Amino acid sequence: MACTPVQLGHSLAGFHYTLAADILRDVETPLREPTFLILTALAGEPLHGYGLITEVSRLSDGRVTLRPGTLYGALDRLVDAGLVEVDHEEVVDSRLRRYYRLSEQGGQTLVEETERMRRNVEAATERLRKIPRLNEGWA
């Protein structure tokens, strides 16, 4: 089953990802955007589920919204793949809060994917500069 994000409304740029399988078929690169954003969010500090949902939304300027079930399915797969680790757990208001962190392998995967994306952006930017009608928007 291919990842098909459901577009919200007619003109909104945001997407909801409803299945963990939609996020994860990508333990290898290129990573799908939600997985890339989860790993990026965890590169800063360990986060719990709600913190990840909030940070992914912030990193994507609200374009990517992860539902809790989708996030936890993705986290289970990322943990199984060795890209993410459980950092610690704590009880807050009688509820267990599990914090996740980027593993060394996850960090290396994020570095490699970031470099791959950087090269793609450089190639696209170089070509776009050659198109006069688009050149005005490029420094």
From TrEMBL:
Superkingdom of the source?
Bacteria
What InterPro entries does the annotation carry? Answer: Metal_resp_DNA-bind_regulator, Tscrpt_reg_PadR_N, WH-like_DNA-bd_sf, WH_DNA-bd_sf
- Name one matching Pfam family: PadR
Give the Transcription regulator PadR N-terminal domain ranges.
Answer: 38-110
Report the protein name in the record. DNA-binding transcriptional regulator, PadR family
Single GO term (MF): DNA binding
Question: What keywords would UniProt list here?
Answer: DNA-binding
